[in-house]
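debug: dumping io for the single-chain case to check the tokenizer round-trip. Nothing else runs in this session.
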Amino acid sequence: IINYKGDTKTWFSSSSLEFKGSHCSTNYVVQAIAKNVARTTIQLGI
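debug: decoded output
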């Protein structure tokens, strides 16, 4: 997530959630990343 100036406010990747190998591209991992991004943006007030 970036602000209007282009500054990165938060980011997540499958490896940041400790998913490795072929598990990185599953729907479960994508959903887990989306939940973490949503939670963090709410905490930041974005």
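debug: round-trip ok. Helices lie at 27-44.
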